[in-house]
Amino acid sequence: MVEHQSRPGWAEVEEYLSATLVHGDAGMDAVLASIDAAAMPRIEVAPTAGKLLMLLARIQGARRVLEIGTLAGFSTIWLARALPDGGHITTCEYLPEHAAVAGRNIMAAGFAAMVDIRVGPALDTLPTLLGGEPYDFVFIDADKGNNVNYLRWALKLTRPGSVIVMDNVIWEGTILNPGDDPDAAAIRAALDFMGANPALDATAIQTAGSKGWDGFAIAVVR
Ligand code: SAH
Ligand code: DHB
Ligand code: MG
Predict the structure, then answer these.
(1) pTM greater than the 0.85 cutoff
(2) Which tens digit of pLDDT belongs to each residue from 46-67?
(3) For residue 141, which atom of ligand 2 is closest to its CA?
(4) Closest ligand 2 atom number to CA of residue 183
(5) Mind spelling out the 3-state secondary structure of 35-82?
(6) CATH: 3.90.1200.10, 3.40.50.150, 1.10.150.530, 3.40.50.620. Which one for 8-221?
C-alpha cells in the first residue's frame, strides 16, 4: 500500500477541470458525503476519471458492465449513466458495509434496477457469472493483489471488442521498484500480463491529481 500524495497544484488543476468539464451535481456530492459519513476510505475515482469511465463506456456502446470493487458506488453510478435502457451492471464488493452504502447511493441515483451488487470476494462471484451474456466493459478497481486473476476472469467473461479498464496502475511510481510492497509488485505483474497477452491490446496513462500520482490501463479484447 502506498500513501497517495497530491502535490500543490495538481489538486487545484483537477478542481478546475472538474468544475469546467465534469459538472458535478448534488447526487454525486451526496455519494462522496456518504463515504465520509460512513468513515470509509476516500479511494473512489476522481470525478474527472469517473466521467472518463462514463465516456469510454458510451464510446464503446456498452450495455453490460462488470465492475470489481464497488466501495460506495461512485464509479458504478458514473458507468450506469453511460448505459442505455436495458443496460446492466454487475458490481462486486467484498465488504457488506460498503455494499450497503453503495446500495443506498445507487437506489437514490435511480439505478437500482440496473445494478446488481454481489457481496463477497470477487473471486467467489466471478465464476458464477460464467454462461451469461458477455460483458462489454470491465472496470477492475479492488484488491490489487488479485489484478492478474481479475484480468484472467475478465477475459473469460468478455468478447472480442470488449473494453477492460484497470485503475491504480502507477501507484506513486512504485511499480518500477516494488520493494516490499506486494500491491506494487502485483500491479506491475498485471501490466506485464496485459502487455504479453495476445488477446489484449493495451496501453496505460499516468495521472496526477487529488489521488496523487497514479493512472489507469485500458485494453481492448482481440
Ligand atoms: N470503484 C470504486 C472504488 C473501489 S475501492 C470507485 O471508484 O468509486 C476498492 C473496493 O474494493 C473497496 O470497497 C474494497 O472493500 C473492495 N474489495 C477489496 N477486496 C475485494 C475483493 N477481494 N473482492 C471484491 N471487492 C474487494
Ligand atoms: C487505494 C485503492 C484504490 O482503488 C484507489 O483508487 C486508491 C487507493 C488503496 O487501497 O490505497
Ligand atoms: Mg482505484
Answers:
(1) yes
(2) 999 999 999 999 999 999 999 9
(3) 4
(4) 10
(5) HHHCCCCCCCCCHHHHHHHHHHHHHHCCCEEEEECCCCCHHHHHHHCC
(6) 3.40.50.150
